[in-house]
Amino acid sequence: MMANKETARKALEVIRAWTSLENPRASCRFLIAYAALAHIEDGTGFSEILYIRVSGPRDGKKTQTGAIAADLVGEDHCVVVTAGTTSAVFFRMIDARHKLVVVDEADELPTGIAREIARIARAGYRTGAKVYRCDGPIGTKSYGVYGPKMFIGVKPERDAALRNRMVELRAVASTETEFRFTQGNRDAAIGAMRSLLEAFGEQERANVLSLYNDSHILPEGLSGRLAGIARPLIAVARRLDSRWPGFHFERIVRAQLLREHDLRQELAEFDDSSLIKSYLNTLLDTSPTSALGVSDVFTREALQDFFMKQDRRFRQIPGHIFTRMLYESGYAVGLRTRKRVNGSNPLKHIRLKIAAIRKVPFQEASRD
Known about the structure:
Strand content: 5-15%
Largest sheet: 5 strands, parallel
Distance between the termini: 72 Å
């Protein structure tokens, strides 16, 4: 038992060094709990399962985070999707195998494969989920797509339906100046941890399923879809604690899930109209000036990045919804000219109505 705890402790130390996750102590344990869940799940135990989204800056070691998750699960039980994967190959790789699917650089995938993955992910959180595709001139074929999934990208998930099935782990820019562990150290530690998780999956499956069916396992305050998809991971975390006490897997998983729940509640009650003008004024105050005054043209991504830094709730809003919010506020219009702006597609640019944003409401002007 002590040897197993030492193996887990070493693996956590390596994962923390090889990733750059926000709240690293908790996030690394959450990652191991999710890998343990992948070792338990075979398509017959749970009714639904949650996904993970890892998002953050380009130097946030996100790909390495996905690689570690894949290695903790093992090559035989994991599928890694990159920009070079075609949809036909992807379907054959995951069909009815209930493997962990790691989608790297999800923001950069070609439209075709991105669309197929979105279809799969919307359905694949429920056991028995299938997606149908054409097979031959007139035939169709069904593919089993249920199983754990991890999505890696710079931006938070933009698809509202997918976002509702996920828990987000945030990466931060790495400040590492030297390697604490070599590739060999990393592979040895992760390999040893994978062996423990494989044994956990074989020995603890019945106990995990028993906990999963316990109606009291959910923390107070967790409700809705999140409660349903969270139950398997909570059950797994509790059994991990029973095998390796002192790591507090369940406490960390519960805290992450409750933060996610609170964020969703905030977003549901989010009244953007009272904030947009204030944030746009702040943006204009911090924007570079020119001979003609403050620039009034911004990319949609630049605007959303700015809003996300002001208020974390904007991180959960899909890009097209954010753009619609701007238009409906009356303070922005889209550029619909053929002329390119700064070498980029004009349809991705938004012109702010500076006069309307700067205008002081009559009541405020009267008080002054």
